[in-house]
Specification:
- The protein is α/β, with parallel strands linked by helices.
- The protein has 2 domains: 131 residues, 3-Layer(aba) Sandwich (Lysozyme-like); 98 residues, no CATH class.
- Helix content is 40%, strand content 10%.
- The chain contains 12 helices and 9 strands.
- A 5-stranded mixed beta sheet has the order 3-2-4-1-5, with helices on both faces. A two-stranded parallel ribbon has the order 6-9. The protein has a two-stranded antiparallel sheet with strand order 7-8.
- A hairpin with a 2-residue loop joins strand 7 and strand 8.
- 26% of the residues are buried.
């Protein structure tokens, strides 16, 4: 009887392993998670700690007011690999040193690979605004895509469901849903130009621009060319008041509009201005990406800049 039970247990174990090819790496995950859990349950300071140079108080005092740090950004990637299976394997090999919280296949299947409160290695060196360590404050989402494909309807639908949960659970601001190329413009081009940023923004994940406003915008040099309007100080006819022009005509982009400053205010790292402009165009223009910065791009940037002020 004992032998029979042992055989049954062995069969169950083997069946379990055969059913999930990642059983071994799952055990590694659990082991590492337990190690981190043990680390954070340590009391902040030990009494009579002779190894520390700190002058500790006479007794331990632990606050009662704390919780887990929560993610405040979502960074979206494409995998640039051949399949979901290849990506899952890549993220479970120690030597690759890369991971993400979620992987979403073309079929819409979602693989939640890491607890949202833990730090994944998905962003690498990058910056958004003043944040230079996005890995520590963000959720990484990888979409199965070779880098040039159109994203499937099932994939985007699953992504929207994941984003809805993340926004609800962690109260992530709409403007903090960004792409890998946004935070690493000199290195990355994902997600590719087929990614539906406008659709996401309409759902509350990321920002987009008011297309009617862009359509009605004019450059200052164009606006005043057919209409040579001048406003003068009463006692000094030779002195023009340019700032009044802009107050009266809000749909006019001033000649001294600073592209780099606007990109920086939105969040882009402008240490390499050309790369920042390319990243902006990849996210918001999504066509003719090899072209230089054009007038339409300038108008879109101006509207977004005004939105961020």
């Amino acid at each position: 009887m004992k032998k029979l039970i042992a055989c049954l247990l062995l069969v169950l174990v083997l069946a379990s392993c055969a059913g999930n090819p990642y059983s071994k790496t799952n055990r590694v995950y659990k082991k590492q998670a337990k190690a981190y859990a043990k680390e954070i349950t340590k009391f902040p300071a030990r009494e009579n700690d002779n190894e520390s140079a700190l002058n500790y108080g006479d007794y331990r005092v632990g606050t009662t007011n704390f919780n887990l740090r929560k993610p405040n950004y979502v960074v979206i990637h494409h995998t640039a690999q051949d399949s979901t299976a290849q990506t899952l394997k890549t993220f479970t090999l120690t030597r690759t040193q890369v991971s993400a919280h979620y992987v979403i296949g073309k079929d819409g299947k979602v693989y939640h690979m890491l607890n949202d409160y833990l730090r994944a290695w998905h962003g690498g060196v990058g910056q958004w605004g003043n944040n230079t360590d996005l890995n520590s404050s963000s959720i990484g989402i990888e979409l199965d895509n070779d880098g040039s494909e159109t994203f499937s309807e099932a994939q985007i639908e699953s992504l929207l469901q994941v984003l809805a949960l993340l926004k609800k659970n962690y109260n992530i601001p709409a403007k903090n849903f960004i792409g890998h190329s946004d935070i690493a413009p000199t290195r990355k081009v994902d997600p590719n130009a087929n990614f539906p940023w406008k659709k996401l923004a309409e759902k509350g994940y990321g920002i987009w621009y008011d297309e009617a406003w862009v359509e009605n915008l004019q450059m200052e040099r164009e606006f005043f060319k057919p209409f040579p309007l001048k406003l003068y100080w009463p006692n000094n006819p030779a002195q023009r008041i340019p700032f009044v022009d802009r107050l009266v005509f809000p749909n006019v982009i001033p000649n001294d509009f600073d592209i780099n400053l606007a990109l920086k205010i939105i969040g882009f790292d402008i240490s390499d201005p050309i790369a920042a402009r390319k990243a902006f165009r990849l996210h918001f223009i999504q066509e003719d990406l090899e072209e230089p910065f054009r007038e339409k791009d300038l108008k879109v940037l101006y509207v977004l800049y005004k939105k961020y002020l």
